[in-house]
Structures are given as structure tokens and as C-alpha cells.
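Ticket 4471: requesting a sanity check on a complex prediction with guanosine-5'-monophosphate. Repro inputs:
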Amino acid sequence: MRGYPIVISSPSGGGKTSLVHRILGDMPKAAYSVSATTRSPRSGERNGRDYFFVSKPAFERMVRKRELAEWANVHGHYYGTPRKFLDAKIALGYFPLLDVDVQGALQLKKKYGSGVYIFLIPPTLRELSRRLRERHTDSPDVIRRRLIAAKRELQAAQKYDYVVLNDDLDAAVERVKNILESERWRAHRADSRLKALK
Ligand code: 5GP
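Returned C-alpha cells:
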């Protein structure tokens, strides 16, 4: 049976990273899709695990060679999803888990219609601002720009399949797991199971 992508977006500071790790830990057939990016690594980030950190010319080469399933310029840097990993995992019955921005998710939705598209929202913009400041990874100017971007991204939330409140990590993980469990049993995914019964 083929798998399908699970795509999770949220404004930055939306608590996506912790949630993604928890889902990966609980779902043996989920596989994190490591993106390529031209931004520099933050402290603690490792090449090949968190991102493939590449130069701008290298990224542009990947775009030209159609090696990316989607790509976008986010906050002044390029980010993209390697197509090979995604397609191989889907073909093998795995569930690639993607953490991409709104532009990327909407590109994927056109190409990977069988995927599950989830948008995580913070309880309030004030809470989002607090989370960004507490991360201590971005300058006040970057935080300000991320908040402006967040307001814009929230407008695209209804193009996703699900909008999940992330007020509390455990509760949000539970909500996403419930969604993924129900998605498994959607009628349009039952083809091979039904054929086996004939
Ligand atoms: P950060 O630099 O904080 O790791 O990520 C910034 C934004 O880029 C986040 O919204 C994240 O979801 C998005 N992003 C990460 N990887 C990709 C990708 O491969 N494609 C797209 N379109 N966005 C990505």
C-alpha cells in the first residue's frame, strides 16, 4: 500500500518542531523529510538531520534539475523539499512528515492530493510573540518580521484540511494523532483492502 505525505505548517514559533518530533516518535512509519535551505545553521542544528544546508548556487541547481517537490523563499532564504526522498517513501508505504511554510504546502497540495495538510495555530498572537522571544534565536527585527508574516500566513489556514490549536503540546499532539488515525480509514484509501476481499 502506498503512503502519503503529512504536511504540517504553522507560523514560526507555533511550536511545530516539538510536535513533529513527538509524532515521529509515536508513528513508526512516519519519516521526517529533511529540507534543503540556504539559511545558516542555528546552534545545535546538524546538516542532514535538521536541514541540508546548501549554498544559493547549489539550491538553484536543485531547482533547475527539478530535484525539489516544492520550494519557496521564506524570510529571505530559500527552502525546498527533496523530491526523491518524498516519492520513495510514499511508494514504499511510508508517511513522509513535512514541516513547510504555506507557499510550500499549497504547491504540494496540487501535486500530492492524497496528503494530509495540517495548520497549527497558536492560541493568540501575543502568545506567538512570547514564544518567539523566548527562543532567544532571533533578533528583535527578525521577530517583528516573523509576526507580520504570521498574520499573512494565518489567512491561508483554511486552505488546509485541518486547523489545530496548539495551546498545549500534549493536547496538540493528541489532536494530530486523532486526525492521522481517522485519515488512515478514509474510504478513498481503502482500494487495496477492498480488492483483497473480492
Ligand atoms: P526555520 O528557518 O525557522 O527553520 O524555518 C522557517 C520556515 O521555513 C518555517 O515556516 C518552515 O516551516 C519553513 N520551511 C522549512 N523547510 C521548508 C521547505 O522545505 N519548504 C518550504 N516551503 N518551507 C520550509
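Notes from triage: Residues 169-184 form the longest helix (16 residues). Leaving this open until the requester confirms.
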